[in-house]
Amino acid sequence: MPTTPKEILSNYDVSPFIMLVFEVLFYGAYIIIFGLYIYLQVHHQERQRYYQASICLLFALTTASVALAILSFVQLTFEDLLEVAFYLPISNDLGFAIIDTQTEISTLNNNLSTASRGIYAVANITADTLLLYRCYVLWLSRKWIIACLGIVSVINVGR
Predict the structure, then answer these.
(1) pLDDT tens readout for residues 18-63
(2) For this UniProt entry, which segments traverse the membrane (predicted)?
């Protein structure tokens, strides 16, 4: 177990930072694609409200997911900095404050994880519903095909 701040920082894992960089990079590409979609919808005469609502909901969920990822990264970094501060010479009063802060960070981490899983579930259900609707139109309203795909979708969400 590391006992000095230098030993703690030498074991710092940079993979969350790399994951965040890629997530923000892909989100930037998604913003451009969504902007093009909005531009085309404004200039297109025939509008399909279900597609518009679904795609806007998916964009909002993606934005919330990226915000949670950034917040989670900041929380993780803050937690590591508190671990370094915990090993520095401190007074008893400050030590209790750090322990309380670590408890609060643990609670925040649980809340972020729950919110992230909830966003993923809603986004998955929205995307599956959009895909089922497209298949329904493509297969000329054959309900047995949609029923089979719906069962697969429910199994996917349930795991």
Answers:
(1) 999 999 999 999 999 999 999 988 888 777 888 889 999 999 999 9
(2) 17-39, 51-74, 136-157
CA distance 153 to 130: 11
Q: Report how far residue 149's alpha carbon sits from residue 159's, in angstroms, rounded to the nearest whole number.
A: 16
Distance of CA 28 to the CA centre of its chain: 14
| Count of structural domains, the chain | 1
What's the domain range around 116? Answer: 5-158
- DSSP structure string for 39-92: HHHHH-SS--HHHHHHHHHHHHHHHHHHHHHHHHHHHHHHHHHHHHHHHS---H
Mean per-residue pLDDT over the chain, rounded: 81
Secondary structure (3-state) at 56: helix
| Contact criterion met (CB below 8 Å) for 79 and 105 | yes
Query: How many CB atoms sit inside 10 A of residue 120's CB?
Result: 12
Whole-angstrom distance, CA of residue 116 vs CA of residue 64: 9
How many Å separate Cα 19 from the centre of its chain? 12
Of the candidates 36, 31, 33, the one whose C-alpha atom is nearest the C-alpha of residue 62 is: 31
pLDDT confidence of residue 9: 61
Q: Which two three-digit tokens encode residue 89?
A: 């010479």
